[in-house]
Amino acid sequence: MGPGLDMRTVAILLAVLAAVALAFGAQFQNDAVVQKSKIKDKLKGSLSLKQLLNVIKHPKWLSGTFFMGLAIVLQLGSLSLAPLIVVQPIGAIALVITSLLNARATKTRLNRGTILAISLCTFGIAAFVLMASGVADETELTDGHLVEVLIVLASILVVFGALFFTLGKRMNALIYVVGAGVLYGFVATLAKVVIQRIYQGQFEWLTALCAVGLLIAVSLGGWFVQNAYTSGPPDLVIAGLTVIDPLVAVSIGIVILGEAQQASLPTMIGFGLSALVAVVGVYLISKVHPELRPKKAHV
Known about the structure:
This protein has helices spanning 2-36, 49-55, 59-79, 84-87, 93-106, 112-135, 143-167, 173-199, 205-231, 234-255, 265-288. It is mostly helical. The longest helix has 35 residues, at 2-36.
């Protein structure tokens, strides 16, 4: 019991460090996207291929990518040491850090509504983690678990693919953020699945298929993130990645992977309420953040 608790503590520490790296990565990438695409006012719509190619050569974007990569490595380390539903929500710390970084970089004063929204996100996720840490447990992953996760992922990819091709330029920051959050929730889940199956000595074609699904979700999620930067502040993007992402991952962990089998009915209700609080916070950020207010036209 002692060593297990020690490993869980190390996992939480790694998740905190991953959140810090994620915050800096998001800020640097956002700055690069806005500068290189020459968007002085936040616009709706997606980046053109030419803009995207220009962005990926920008030093700030490369720096942001380094921090994002570091965040992934640290998060994978934490996922290998503790249940998914304990460590994944800790990334919400990045939301607070990003908000402060972006406010300083853009000389934007955060209004009361934005501070309230960020507080709701943080409180909701913190409550979720506290409850999850008390009931979470590792379970053996069967082929059935993997098949269920892959079926749900395939359904999600179809839905977002249809949205992208039908809405196109009309997709706003919130849609991109939700899409990225959902996809990265699957990334965390599939990463956990692949790591645990390797620990179980069961790396076969089904596990390899999960790894392929992980790469697809990372690629499409990354595209959504870059487009979200063009139409919203990094605070909103990180809110999606650190609130929607863990809620999706944790839901899969609870419903499909069975990591919360010891949870009582009151705890499950608590999960639902804390998740609702966090999601409301994300929605409020998309509505009240000062950078998303319409700017007055210059004559």
